[in-house]
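DM from R.C. (forwarded with permission)

"hey, sorry to bug you on a friday — could you get me a structure for this? deadline for the figure draft is monday and I only need the backbone to look sensible"
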Amino acid sequence: MRALGILALSLISSVFAADYMPIAGGALRTALPTDGETVQVAAFKLRSRPVNNQDYLIFLKNTPQWQRGKITPLFASSGYLASWQSATDYSPNHAHAPVTQISWFAANAYCASEQAQLPTWYQWEFVATADAQRKDARNDPLWRAKILKWYAEPAAMPLAASTQQAANIYGVYDMHQLIWEWVEDFNGLFVTSDSRNQGDQKLLETCGAASLSLGDKENYAILMRIALLAALNGQDTVNTLGFRCAKPMQ
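My reply, with the result:
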């Protein structure tokens, strides 16, 4: 019977296999400059939509050590999946809504199950600059205002299902206006007041005065993401913080 259950889960996983969209990469005028205003982002693939509750439930049934109540406190705070009815029941959340209240460690484990990893900040930022028609919409004040409006409104819980808004030019959904997202190198998002003070690790430290060293200072939507991620620990969970995964281009 157990074998049949695993087979069924595998079939479900196959049916709902995530789409990874090819991203050609290129030069990115980043909000986190290191050596110069731009960084070069290599080609990669990005999950077209955030991991949702249904995806994550399949993962939990295959890897029960990540279920609420079984996960070690080293890997997740007490808020881990706190909105779920039980360890294997995501109600009252929508099946196709992004899974949130996930720690960085759990997000990493999930991505590994898809032979992937969390996107780096630069990979995420590269795709997040696009809208449905343009690879870089950041100079459009209407685009910025639309995104900032989401930040100004209280989050509606349970979250809406993903893919309800148009995909961006890469075919990727919900980079904005639905959730915050973990990135692989979240703990390196620090900015010093002097960008020359990066040392060998090129760490960027974020604080009020230090924000003056950030690039693209008018792009508050991106800067707010950096501020949130820089304030987190890997075990932390947030009601509107989810994730998606990335793969190398092969």
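R.C.: lifesaver. The two ends are 38 Å apart (CA to CA).
me: no worries. The CA atoms of residues 41 and 67 lie 35 Å apart.
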